[in-house]
Design a protein that fits this description.
Length: about 80
């Protein structure tokens, strides 16, 4: 039962972008994990840049560094919107 969580700076997605992301992630996860599409769930959560460190970086990146398969390539302080 793979579950994907994506936290991101707030932005608006078109229906086509949402569908493309869901299809790409679902396709990859079903192939790699060997599960059916119905086993995959995806959460996409906007996080304000001013709250990124407390809501995402510290608990999800720093505290779980041993679980990261890809490290972020930014330094503290977190880049402001538009400078990513």
């Amino acid at each position: 039962m793979p579950h994907i969580t994506i936290s991101h700076f707030p932005r608006t997605f078109t229906e086509a972008e949402r569908a493309d992301l869901v299809a790409a992630l679902t396709g990859t996860v079903t192939r790699v994990f060997g599960v059916e599409e119905g086993a995959v769930s995806i959460t996409v959560e906007p996080v304000e840049p001013s709250r990124w460190t407390e809501r995402v970086h510290t608990p999800e990146i720093e505290a779980k560094a041993h679980l990261l398969w890809k490290q972020p390539n930014y330094s503290q302080p977190i880049p402001a919107e538009g400078t990513r």
